[in-house]
Amino acid sequence: MTLMPQPTTPDSPALRARGLRKRYGAEQALDGFDLEIRRGQVHGLLGPNGAGKTTAVRCLTTLTDLDDGHAEIDGIDVRRHPARVRERIGLVGQFHAVDEALTAQQNLVLFARLSGLSKANARRRASELLASFELTDAASRAVSGFSGGMRRRLDIAASLVLTPAILFLDEPTTGLDPRGRATVWQAVREIAAAGTTVLLTTQYLDEADQLADRISVMDHGRVVAEGTPAALKRRLGGDRVAVVIADAARLDEAAELVGRTVGSAASVDHDTRTVTVEVDDGQKALAPIVRALDGAGLTVDDLALRRPTLDEVFLHLTGPGGQSASDPTAASTPPLHETQEAR
Amino acid sequence: MTTITPPTAVAGASVVRDRRPNAAREAWLIAGRDMLHWVREPWGIVFGLAFNIMLILMFGFLFGGAIELPGGGDYIAFLLPGMFALTMLFGLESTMTAMAEDAKRGITDRFRSLPISSASVALGRAIADLASSALSLAVLMLGGLLIGWRPTTGPGEVALGIVLLLWLRFSLLWLGIFLGLRFRGAGATTAVQVLVWPIGFLSTVFVSAETMPGWLGAIATWNPVSATAAATRELFGNPTGTTSGWFAENAVLAASVWPLVITAVFLPLAAGAYRRLRR
Lengths: 343, 279
Hints:
Chain A has helices at 53-60, 82-86, 104-114, 119-132, 148-158, 178-193, 205-211, 229-235, 251-262, 282-295, 310-318, 338-342; strands at residues 15-24, 27-37, 42-46, 68-73, 76-77, 89-92, 166-170, 197-202, 214-219, 222-227, 239-245, 267-269, 274-279, 300-306. Chain A is an alpha/beta fold. The two termini of chain B are 37 Å apart.
């Protein structure tokens, strides 16, 4: 038996899950959940409450038994070798799983020793983690007096006492104030910069957008879309160019002109005197639009280029009825299983 | 073995374990964590003990004068071994509360996500709770000596009496772990806090079964707490309050078998409740 956890297949992904199923009574919490995370990536698992994010994390971290499906961490089968998987994971659950009555230092030393570090090494590791997470000043204070952000940071530190092959963060900023959130984000960025693979669940779109290399959008127990944040936004449709025309009487003429220039129909909002058109590449489209309007003697009051926000992607994918026709862009949106298509 | 590069712990080289998994070591660490709780928050234990001492004083001096023991003997000397056994029963509450709190707060999940044996979590609880009960027992015995209680037998019998008391406590650990894992609501803890009273009183802790109506006396005699109380009285050479009956002659046997039965039933149930967390 070796003390060093060696990945069985070094080129295996950090995490691979296929067809995970888990039922709680009448509720199918996981319904064919697929996920693959390459080493060194921060993967965001995004979904509304009840989508199955926490169940997925609990199953992948051996806390909950799967009904069906195959999952491996670092190349090791989660269902067959849970003990070996536990050697390779760090978990920050939704609760602050640190001991309230103990000090920050006592917590870290306890978890470090339980994870298999000698007393001296556990102490050293605890001090390093306290310094990294800016908790040195609070090291000998009881956790019960900590703020939410401090607790969460300690919680993350406790899951890093050994270097994990993958760190699971289940809604790490839920319930934190903006300051606490910012410090947790900073911690995640540093962990990611150090090369640790991270699976981060969140219901905050900006959080996934800010932190994740790739995002899986989850709804009703399965992944409904996957890709980089930029790709997901692109899938919803192209950029939008909005032009505010000075002369309200010439709005329709302007719309016609803009539409002809980019090759697609422009819409008109008479109240705001705005002509909006969807384009594939906003930056390339801007100049021709401006030239065309200028050439026709139309004065432009304002010009804006914007991309769909992740909020729009999210609502589009997980709204009532999912990819329903209620959203006019849905019909023209290609299937969102980007990676699955590529496979 | 570890190569940690300060100052940025997260960016340093890989930190890997330098100790092999060892359930005994892990159990000891978890027990140490529970004991640290008492050091940092000692009031629970202090008030628990103060309460037991109050019970002794109340029953010993307030009611004791009015209580006549069948077979004769000093009431204080009769009461103390009963209180020792009752203290073991009260320990059930702290086991249950601690298990329920850890499960609720996510500490149990933290333990379960660590590369440690699941037995070490229960074993750590067992070590810590037995240590705390042994400490309570020592304080009560010292207090008993101060108010005139005396064991009149040899050290061997006294030691066996103490072992039987802790044996009862050990069996109740599994009941406490089972209840704490299965019924985690605040209501469940309150229910147990209330229920230990009828269980504790419906015994021979405070009065002899021979002074009760026949059917009630039978229930009280069959109570595991009574068995341990009777055995302890006998082993300490204190008045037993019983003049005849199978239990009077086989108290030590009953006090050995009862906890064995409780353990045989609730240890598997506790292990099952722990496994059920995976569902």
